[in-house]
Amino acid sequence: FSRSLFFSLWIVMVVALISCGEPKTNQQVSKQDKTNSAEVLIEKTNEELSEHPLVAFGYKSYKLNTRKWEVWAKSVAPILEKIIPQIPEGYVLQIVGHANAIGPEEPQPDGRPGNIYWSKMRARVVFKELVKQGLPADKMVCKAAGSSKLDPRYPNPRDDRHIRVTLRIVP
C-alpha cells in the first residue's frame, strides 16, 4: 500500500512540474509587470480621452473654432501631460478626424472632396495645434475615419456632433 501511494505521489509531482513549465526569473516577471501596467495605463487613458471629443468644426470645414479649442485643450491637457512621456515604445497618440453621415466618403467626380478629406484635414489641424502646445510630433499620427465611426451617443447620423476629432493611444 505505501509503495503504490509513493508511486502515485511521484506521478502527481512529475505531472505538476511538466504542466508548470520553467519557472520565471525576476527579470521575466518584471517585464511582464511593466507590460501589464503599460496596457492598464493605455486602457485607462483611452477611456478618459474618449470622454473628450473635440467638437469644434463646421460641416465641410476644417477651420477650428478657437473658443471651443481653448476649452477642449484645457480639459485634455492634464491627460496628455501625464501620458505623453509614458507612451511605451511602439505606441503613438492617434488623432482621428470624423464626419457626420451627410455627403459621400470619397471625392466626387466633379472634384468636390468627401468626408475622408474633411476628416483628414481636421486631424491635421489638431496635430499642428498640439505640436504648437509642445507635444512631440514623433509621438502622434493622424487618421481620417470619415463617417465610419459615428459617436453612439448621438443616434442621428447627420448630427453635427459627429463632426469631431478624437484621441487614442494605439500601437
How does this model look, in words?
Helix content is 47%, strand content 12%. With 171 residues, the chain is of the alpha+beta class. The chain has four helices and three strands, in the order H-H-H-E-H-E-E. The model has no long low-confidence stretch (mean pLDDT 87). The longest helix has 25 residues, at 26-50. Strand 1, helix 4 and strand 2 form a beta-alpha-beta unit.
Largest sheet, strands/sense/barrel: 3 strands, mixed
Which regions have little confidence, pLDDT < 50, spanning 5+ residues? Answer: none
Taking the alpha carbons of the first and last residues, their distance comes to 60 Å
Oligomerization category of the chains in this entry: single chain
Portion in helices = 40-55%
Radius of gyration: 25 Å
Residue-averaged pLDDT: 87
Q: Outline, from the CA principal axes?
A: elongated
> Count of helical segments?
4
Structural class: alpha+beta
- Return the string of H and E elements: HHHEHEE
How many beta-strand runs? Answer: 3
Fraction in beta strands: 5-15%
The order of strands across the largest sheet is 2-1-3
